[in-house]
Amino acid sequence: MNKILLISTGGTLASSCSVNGLAPGMGGKEILSKIEGLTAGFAVDVEELFMLDSSNIQPEHWAQLAECIYERREHYDGIVIVHGTDTLSYTAAALSFALQNIELPVVLTGSQVSIENPIADATENCRAALHMAASGCPGVYVAFNRKIIMGTRASKVRTRSFDAFESIDYPYAAKINSSGLVLNPCVSQSSEKECILQNHFSTDVFLLKLFPGMNPDIFRKLKVLGMRGVYIEAFGIGGLPFALRGLTEVIREVVQEGMIVAVGSQCLYEGSDFSVYEVGRQVLDCGVIETGNMTSEAAITKLMWAIGEYGDRERVHKIMKTNLLGEFGTRQDWMLK
To answer: Is the pTM of this model over 0.90?
Structure first.
């Protein structure tokens, strides 16, 4: 019998109606009682860590959650985390970096509708999460709508639909169908290295979505505010304007002053290649880090983690350019999907 730890953090799945709208109010034990029919064959313990809407989840909570998992990992076959959907992909990416080489499956799930609602997707998502947690496949994953996604590749793409999450430019780790949990042999996070807790995240970072006419002085102001890193969502396959306002020259200036600047695409799929156009090559010459087909969630959390753990600019650059957990990859990877 697989021993599973259920960690509850709140979210829509655990929410009830209040005078101020839906708010988390259901603890892990109550959640477990509502999915009792799904737990046959599992020995499930409960850890009630937070009671938060995921919009209120902060890096301090990521650190606490990672520590909780790290301390309990040797006592369980797998861990399921009930989490709100709005920042679930950020937490999944953060845990992936903080718990590299984790020896067991850690599976985040949630729902678009409270588990109290008869039509809720909560039950099906919990079923998928439990079975993935018992699969023996180590790593951090997201379970949603019968699909299992690597923690660094998940993105919430729909606000209401039950099919809320997709695996961006990467195959699904597993799917649930009439055959049960079907694992994808092309996706593996297994490692012989030891899991070491690395749960420091810097909040001195900024995510900026580029738009036509943006004032480049924003970068100087961010530097004055003490921002150590900036992630820019640029246009298309990779472009930033160098005409009229001199954006690339200001980026060059702040990079030379020590700011770490990473750049990716605003487009959800197929990633960036800043070597294609002149407007991309100009910014590469400024000393920025290109993130390829990393999701924005993975890119910003990796930047926060790298600065928080290592600090040193050269080391952060090296870490950001290293594919640690499949957070970026080749065209062949996502064509397997």
So the answer is: yes
